[in-house]
């Protein structure tokens, strides 16, 4: 039962619970009209302390398309955070008005702190360089819809694997399926954090390799997950400038990939995928953004305990 629970990191849900969410998302995609009033009278609060396009809009669109309503802020200086209010006090107040909340925050663990005093379900919409579980639900729904199964895959993750929270959450979630292998493609300085390597990959005996060059591994990948270099989390601009164009996926490199290789990206992209790749049928990132709304519809219904 997901009713009343929070989603702070991908392992909060079992594989079976995730399957239930994907099954509900499938039903919503098949017949969206049927769900147009599923959340009548319910209110979602979106608390965004960091910039966002897809995550916030898809949460808000999801609630509105279910017949519910949305309140919130996308500019923390317009809330009492600017007066020094604690997260715990802010969420206790929001919980007086809303039924469910989605929070994005630059500090790792902030949504977890909020969930402790909320009394309503809190969804982590990205906490610093830590986790981003609803992006993972989005990524998994895309794989489920486009490929059918999560098993027997070689997954290449490319770019900023150190600060990229979507990568950390996706590795965690995919590590629970049979016969998955990871190829971690990044510059030395932007490798996956030690805790992900040790506590997820090594602990579960998941085969993985760390490489710097993309070309040599492209032919073996079933999924290529591209990411942006996370400028806002760098300590100095010089390092960012040196690393920002480490990887650029273009049409020539796509020729090295399998015919059915899936290319995903949480977006926003900066330079790491050339626009010419967009017309390749293997480029799924805009479809992925659309699936993000459907999976959030399924998530909101499930956490509110609304049958569907
Ligand atoms: C990602 C994020 O915020 O972590 N974006 C998103 O939610 N789709 C990825 C990024 O910002 O690079």
Structure summary:
The chain has ten helices and nine strands. It has helices spanning 15-30, 54-65, 87-97, 110-118, 133-146, 165-174, 194-202, 237-243, 251-254, 285-303; strands at residues 43-48, 69-73, 100-105, 122-127, 153-158, 180-185, 208-211, 223-226, 262-264.
Q: β content, as a range?
A: 5-15%
Number of domains: 2
| Class derived from helix and strand content | alpha/beta
* Each distinct ligand: N-carbamoyl-L-aspartate
What's the alpha carbon Rg, rounded to whole Å?
19 Å
Strand order of the largest sheet: 7-6-5-8-9
How many strands, what sense, and barrel or not for the largest sheet? 5 strands, parallel
Instruction: Give the class-level CATH name of the largest domain.
Output: Alpha Beta
Could you tell me the mean pLDDT?
97
- Tell me, what's the shape? globular
Q: What is the correct CATH architecture of the largest domain?
A: 3-Layer(aba) Sandwich
Note poorly predicted spans: none
CATH topology of the largest domain: Rossmann fold
Tell me how many strands there are: 9
The portion of residues assigned to helices is 25-40%
H-E order: HEHEHEHEHEHEHEEHHEH
Counting DSSP H or I runs of 4 or more residues, the number of helices is: 10
Q: What is the CATH homologous superfamily assignment of the largest domain?
A: Aspartate/ornithine carbamoyltransferase
End-to-end gap: 13 Å
